[in-house]
From TrEMBL:
Species of provenance: Microcella humidisoli
Enzyme Commission number(s) from the entry: 4.2.1.47
Family: Belongs to the NAD(P)-dependent epimerase/dehydratase family. GDP-mannose 4,6-dehydratase subfamily.
Superkingdom of the organism of origin: Bacteria
SUPFAM superfamilies with a match to the protein in the record: NAD(P)-binding Rossmann-fold domains
The protein, known as: GDP-mannose 4,6-dehydratase
Cofactor(s) this protein requires: NADP(+)
Pfam families the UniProt entry points to: GDP_Man_Dehyd
All residue ranges annotated as the NAD(P)-binding domain in the record: 5-304
InterPro entries reported in the protein's UniProt record: GDP_Man_deHydtase (IPR006368), NAD(P)-bd_dom (IPR016040), NAD(P)-bd_dom_sf (IPR036291)
Length: 316
């Protein structure tokens, strides 16, 4: 039985990945920031490691001696990274360095540790080329992107020196488990409240930004497959939509076509250097990992709205 250590196991994608790994026969361990966090299905053993103190995750790896570390933990908000860039640099860049150095040390001592790192579309910044591929220049324009770029480069250099490590370059990925701070869940939750007559409107920022939104469980599956094929993988759908398109699709799912007056805009939700479009080319990943997404944009929006409507009905 192979043993996995998943950082970020209580987050959206980490929880799906833990379930998938358990279903594929892995013994799953999770790293959590504080004691008392709840394990998702299939993760019997949790270990406390605050990624803001990168030595703590090294200690946990030494104790667990996993066959693979899936590194999904760390801070995740591009907007918030402008207010605390140092925390982003350390919890993302520092933790990745610590994991790779530990994997190398254990490997040198005869215990191979594979690493799959959650890199991000944000490493490409305001990319000059559409869509982005694994060869698109790394040119982040946000503190979050810069921190992810550090982790991304470290994975490449440790791989070149013998650590079996992969970057999953994750474009935006969504599900009913997405926290409300992200635009998709904010929209589907807001639309459900409006449909239930419990909120008058939704307030958003930049409606013109285009993102390549995929289904989080599909992306967890790509990370699982990457563990046995060290490399850099674009995990995306190849299709981008604007925030406005997402709003329209979410309202359409509850039968509201005339939504313009239900959506307000506030500069509070605008960000510096918001990339106008991020869109990934998944072709190389599909070929190398025999991976294919199973849910398209409309299916994803409909599933998220349905889950938010059901949660409201349960609470009513
Ligand atoms: C790849 C990347 O994906 C995610 O980061 P994100 O793209 O920043 O995600 P988001 O849902 O916060 O923003 C998407 C777009 O939507 C725009 N937008 C408009 N109005 C609001 C609004 O009201 N709230 C938010 N949050 N965004 C808004 C916002 O300006 C941006 O253009 C993380 O998983 C991250 O960890 C990661 O790696």
């Amino acid at each position: 039985m192979r043993r996995a250590l998943v950082t970020g196991i209580t987050g959206q994608t980490g929880s799906y990945l833990a379930e998938l790994l358990a279903a594929h026969g892995w013994e799953v361990h999770g790293a959590v920031r504080t004691a008392g966090e709840t394990a998702p299905t299939g993760a019997p053993t949790l270990h406390v490691a605050d990624l803001a103190r990168p030595d703590e995750i090294a200690t946990v790896i030494d104790r667990v001696r996993p066959d693979a570390v899936f590194h999904l933990g760390g801070l995740t908000s591009v907007a918030e990274s402008w207010t605390d860039p140092a925390a982003y640099a350390v919890t993302i860049g520092g933790s990745t360095a610590s994991i790779l150095a530990t994997a190398r040390r254990l490997g040198d001592a005869g215990h191979e540790v594979r690493v799959v790192n959650a890199s991000s579309a944000e490493v490409f910044g305001r990319a000059a080329e559409q869509p982005q591929t694994a060869s698109t220049p790394i040119a982040p324009v946000t503190p979050y992107g810069a921190a992810k770029a550090l982790g991304h480069r470290l994975v490449k250099m440790y791989r070149e020196t013998g650590v079996p490590a992969a970057n999953g370059i994750l474009f935006n990925h969504e599900s009913p488990r997405r926290p409300l701070a992200f635009v998709t869940r904010k929209i589907t939750h807001g639309v459900a409240l409006i449909a239930a007559g419990r909120a008058p409107s939704i307030t958003l920022g930049n409606l013109d930004a285009r993102r390549d939104w995929g289904w989080a469980p599909d992306y967890a599956e790509a990370l699982r497959l990457a563990v046995d094929a060290p490399g850099d993988y674009i995990i995306a759908t190849g299709v981008s939509h604007s925030v406005r398109d997402f709003v329209a699709a979410a309202f359409a799912a509850v039968g509201i076509d005339d939504w313009q007056q239900l959506v307000l805009q506030d500069p509070r939700f605008m960000r510096p250097n918001d990339a106008p479009e991020q869109r990934g080319d998944p072709a190389a990943t599909e070929a190398a990992l025999s991976w294919r997404r199973t849910v398209d944009f409309e299916g994803m929006v409909a599933a998220m709205v349905a889950a938010d409507l059901a949660a409201l009905a349960d609470r009513a």
